[in-house]
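Allow me, if you will, to draw on your knowledge of protein folds for a short while. I am sending you one protein, given as its amino acid sequence and as whole-number tokens for its backbone shapes. Kindly check, if you would, that the fold set down in the tokens agrees with what the sequence suggests. The record follows directly beneath this note:
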Amino acid sequence: MGGITSLWVQKLDTVPGEIVFEEKFNYPDGALPADWRSEGVPASIQNRRLFVGEDTLKPRVATACLDWEFSDNLQVEFDVHVVSSQELANNLNFFFMYADPEGRNFRETKKERKDGNYARYHKLNGYIFTHLANGRESLARFRFRYNPGFTLLEEWNGDECRIGTTYRIKLVKKDQKIQYWTDGKLIIDQELEASRQHKKVIIGFRTYRTSLWWDNLVVRQLD
């Protein structure tokens, strides 16, 4: 990892809706800032954005995680933009509310996920939002899964996921309610069972067979 530190803001006493983390990736091109790490194809800073150019690079998967643990009830927003995808995967996955079920620190276990293999994340606690083109010019596919177990909780086909378009994504976790929004449109809306509520929070960007960038990450505490 690089030695640059992210421009995050830590506040022990917050009011609902207050920003507790903000990252604009305004660093020179090169290694990730110290608070970030990547698994699979390495992520980097390019043009003041978090970039992964793994459309054709093996193993053609990449995860970029923020090494920061938040508490429950969050709103997360960010921009994402597909640069290229030879197979029109246009894969915009997001890992939300992730934690090791044995309580181990994510940094301590990163070697176990060095290759970025998707199945390695299915054994952890967390939620996966999948937003992708799935080989189509239009009509995106959205999926919401629960881990451990990679259990599908909701699926919907509609809207879009195009190359060359910047999307503003918003995720909300408030008590048992969890939502996924794109450009102000509510796509996933779930009431979680008590047994499926995760409250320790690691967040991470994920992609597959896609070159893309992320930017303008904002995390707000909702309680």
